[in-house]
Amino acid sequence: MHWTLVIPVKPLARAKSRLADTADDGLRPGLALAFAQDTVAAALACPGVRDVAVVTDDGVAGRELGALGARIVPDEPGGGLNAALEHAVAAVRAARPESAVAALNADLPALRPAELDLVLAAAAEFPRAFLPDAAEIGTTLLAASPGRELQPAFGLDSRARHRASGAVELALTGVDSVRQDVDTGDDLRAALALGVGPRTAAVAERLLIPGQ
Question: Which one, 89, 112, 129, 189, has least CB within 10 Å?
Answer without folding.
Answer: 189
